[in-house]
């Protein structure tokens, strides 16, 4: 599935990998594969949130979140609901600076930040494919919030020395979602 926010960033509300009714994704399936409607993987919401929250675009397929089978023999699907939070979205490629700023009389409030890689296309220009193929490699970070919250402007370097190295051999980027609040 694909989540997209044209304005703001994604905030996942619900996520299911399993089966909750007999109608969804049922065409051509035998009744025995639709029988269990109380079937869901326990960690789906957390997996989808960690992958998609505070991003503008997020694509996940069933293989990515269906690591375990919550109900063998049942045909499963992925279902999610999300909202788009108004936010400023900043990406800084590895070794670059992220600049966050608000108007006079306003201060930065970080929704979320992560350093790593969650998308093959971001910060990939002129990079070999082997450096951008690992898209399950990012660490949420509270370092940006600790450094920038409450300030009118703030800059932070997207680097392993600042955030650690969640995946060796992968070209990373810093992704930040924030809003400006009145002082």
TrEMBL record:
Coiled coil: none annotated. PROSITE patterns: SUEL_LECTIN (PS50228). Gene3D superfamilies: 2.60.120.740. GO terms for molecular function: carbohydrate binding. Residues 1-85, 92-181 form the SUEL-type lectin domain. The keyword Ligase does not apply. Keywords: Lectin, Repeat. It comes from the Eukaryota. This is SUEL-type lectin domain-containing protein.
């Amino acid at each position: 599935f694909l989540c997209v926010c044209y304005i703001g960033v994604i905030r996942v509300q619900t996520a299911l990998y399993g089966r909750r009714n007999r109608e969804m994704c049922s065409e051509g399936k035998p009744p025995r594969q639709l029988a269990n409607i109380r079937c869901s993987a326990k960690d789906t919401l957390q997996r989808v949130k960690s992958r998609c929250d505070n991003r503008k675009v997020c694509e996940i397929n069933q293989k990515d979140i269906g690591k375990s089978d919550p109900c063998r023999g049942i045909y499963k699907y992925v279902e999610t609901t999300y909202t788009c939070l108004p936010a400023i979205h900043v990406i800084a490629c590895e070794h670059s600076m992220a600049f966050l700023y608000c108007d006079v009389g306003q201060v930065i409030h970080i929704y979320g930040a992560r350093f790593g890689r969650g998308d093959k296309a971001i910060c990939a220009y002129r990079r070999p494919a082997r450096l951008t193929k690992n898209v399950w490699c990012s660490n949420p970070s509270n370092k940006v919030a600790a450094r920038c919250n409450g300030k009118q402007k703030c800059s932070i370097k997207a680097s392993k020395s600042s955030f650690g190295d969640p995946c060796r051999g992968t070209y990373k980027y810093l992704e930040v979602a924030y809003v400006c609040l009145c002082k």
